[in-house]
């Protein structure tokens, strides 16, 4: 049995936390030590905030206590099974999910958004490896494979079934623009004609440059059953 960190949404689920602590060696505050896993009780936002500070986080066992729970593959009704497997050292399938890096120090699992700080269209110069283009719009999004089903999808962007990234524009002034699908090894850089904000996984990031690449970082999510990506997408989008 290893040592685990428990993270909850706004300190909720006190009774459930005590149940887990009674069965496993757990901390509810990060002690700055090496953990064998992180047990997250919450929704997608809780998961994203938890892993943001790790370059290579421990295995994440995300128990869905939110609404959508795309990043929370363990139903809350299976918490006893999860505790039992962790306590007895039984096998739990770990699915590796790649994430992208911004400016060599910030990580995002869903998407990075750059937009003007003030209201109005911005002029964006987008560099995709050796290709460059100039577009006007409200914002530019770079989404991961995982994030392609989030903000990008609401803009009619494509769902990625293989590793890669999507470059999309919010409200482009050129109606002929189509989202650009890139390989995972692509480098994307964006410049804006005025002061801009950068948002990573829904959180404002104090960073001036927008330079995205894949540097090998990933997150491993625990699954109690066999992971079927196609079935997961069907469940969430009612395809």
Description:
With 239 residues, this protein is of the alpha+beta class. The protein has helices at 14-23, 44-51, 79-88, 151-154, 229-237, and strands spanning 3-8, 25-27, 37-42, 59-64, 74-75, 93-98, 100-102, 106-108, 111-116, 122-128, 131-137, 139-144, 165-170, 180-182, 188-192, 196-200, 203-205, 210-213, 218-223. The chain has two domains: 3-98 and 218-237, Rossmann fold (3-Layer(aba) Sandwich); 101-213, Tumour Suppressor Smad4 (Sandwich), CATH 2.60.200. It is built from five helices and 19 strands. The protein has a six-stranded antiparallel β-sheet with strand order 8-7-18-15-10-11, with no helix packed on it. A six-stranded antiparallel β-sheet has the order 14-13-12-9-16-17, with no helix packed on it. It starts with a strand and ends with a helix.
State the main characteristics.
elongated; alpha+beta; Rossmann fold
CATH class of the largest domain: Alpha Beta
Q: Show unreliable segments.
A: none
Mean residue pLDDT:
92
CATH superfamily of the largest domain: Probable inorganic polyphosphate/atp-NAD kinase, domain 1
Beta fraction: 35-45%
Task: Give me the Rg, rounded.
Answer: 19 Å
Query: Tell me about the biggest sheet?
Result: 6 strands, antiparallel
End-to-end Cα distance: 40 Å
The helix tally amounts to 5
Element string (H = helix, E = strand): EHEEHEEHEEEEEEEHEEEEEEEH
CATH architecture of the largest domain: 3-Layer(aba) Sandwich
Structural class: alpha+beta
The CATH topology name of the largest domain reads: Rossmann fold
Kindly report the spatial arrangement of strands forming the biggest sheet. 8-7-18-15-10-11
The count of β-strands is: 19
Shape assignment: elongated
């Amino acid at each position: 049995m290893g040592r685990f960190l428990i993270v909850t949404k706004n300190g909720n689920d006190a009774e459930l936390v005590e149940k887990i602590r009674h069965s496993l060696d757990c901390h509810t505050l990060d002690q700055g030590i090496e953990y064998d896993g992180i047990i997250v009780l919450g929704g997608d936002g809780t998961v994203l905030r938890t892993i943001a500070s790790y370059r290579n986080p421990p295995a994440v066992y995300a128990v869905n206590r939110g609404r959508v729970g795309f990043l929370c593959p363990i139903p809350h009704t299976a918490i006893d099974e999860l505790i039992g497997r962790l306590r007895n050292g039984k096998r739990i399938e770990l699915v590796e999910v790649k994430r992208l890096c911004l400016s060599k120090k910030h990580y995002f699992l869903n998407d990075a958004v750059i937009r003007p700080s003030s209201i109005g269209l911005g002029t964006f110069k987008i560099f995709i490896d050796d290709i460059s283009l100039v577009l006007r719009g409200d914002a530019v999004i770079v989404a991961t494979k995982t994030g392609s089903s989030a903000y990008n999808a609401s803009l009619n962007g494509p769902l990625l079934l293989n590793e890669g990234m999507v470059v999309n524009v919010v409200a482009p002034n050129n109606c002929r623009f189509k989202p650009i699908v890139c390989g995972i090894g692509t480098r994307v850089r964006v410049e804006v004609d005025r002061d801009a904000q950068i948002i990573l996984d829904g959180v404002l990031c104090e960073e001036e440059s927008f330079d995205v690449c894949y540097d090998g970082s990933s997150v491993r999510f625990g699954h109690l059953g066999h992971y079927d990506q196609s079935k997961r997408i069907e469940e969430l989008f009612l395809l």
